[in-house]
Amino acid sequence: MAIFNLETEQGIKSLDAFLADHSYVEGFQATQADVGVFESLAKPPTAATPHLLRWYNHINSFGDGCKTLPGEKKSAKAFGGEAKANNDDDDIDLFGSDEDDAEAAKIREERLKAYAEKKSKKPALIAKSSIILDVKPWDDETDMKELEASVRTITMDGLLWGASKMVPVGFGIHKLQIMCVVEDEKVSVDLLIEEIQKFEELVQSVDIVAFNKI
């Protein structure tokens, strides 16, 4: 796993650049490593670091479910003070530390130029997530067809509604289980849930059943 000094602005930018090509801090699913980095951030990211903001909102959406994520939580020191102690410059030194040496400076410039050219040719990846929501009515008298139709009226740039089904929960009551695909940078899951709950005469509560990167 990459080490980032989250006490510095450069470290925050380096983490944002890392998340441009990675969905998570380690591997291909959310783990305790993500929780460790999440908790190490001194404050929520802003639109100035869009990839970090997308990742932050995704991890934040797990809520108390973060405790059940697999893996081992890394100490906050691994992303802050410890990295700073090991390297007084940036989180990763790609080009050597002898800034006064003319040859080293030349090599550094060449590598920066090559990296910039490679980055400019790489197509941007659109991070998406597949989400399954449980939408629960107030009682067995709720018109479930009207409930589903209301939910599907919600439109957002980057939101696509998918299949749905009615699932019995007992006493003649059914809940709506509906799938959607969202572009992580465009759609906030918390905001989507808030929009569904605005149909307060029909909707009692909304729960996330599944949340997977695609």
From TrEMBL:
Pfam families tied to this protein: EF-1_beta_acid, EF1_GNE
InterPro entries on file: eEF-1beta-like_sf, EF-1_beta_acid_region_euk, EF1B_bsu/dsu, EF1B_bsu/dsu_GNE, Glutathione-S-Trfase_C_sf, Transl_elong_EF1B/ribsomal_bS6, Transl_elong_EF1B_B/D_CS
GO MF annotation terms: guanyl-nucleotide exchange factor activity; translation elongation factor activity
Protein name as it appears in the record: Elongation factor 1-beta
Keyword terms of this UniProt record: Elongation factor, Protein biosynthesis
Translation elongation factor EF1B beta/delta subunit guanine nucleotide exchange domain ranges (all copies): 128-214
Gene Ontology CC terms: cytosol; eukaryotic translation elongation factor 1 complex
Family note: Belongs to the EF-1-beta/EF-1-delta family.
Domain Elongation factor 1 beta central acidic region eukaryote residue range list: 94-119
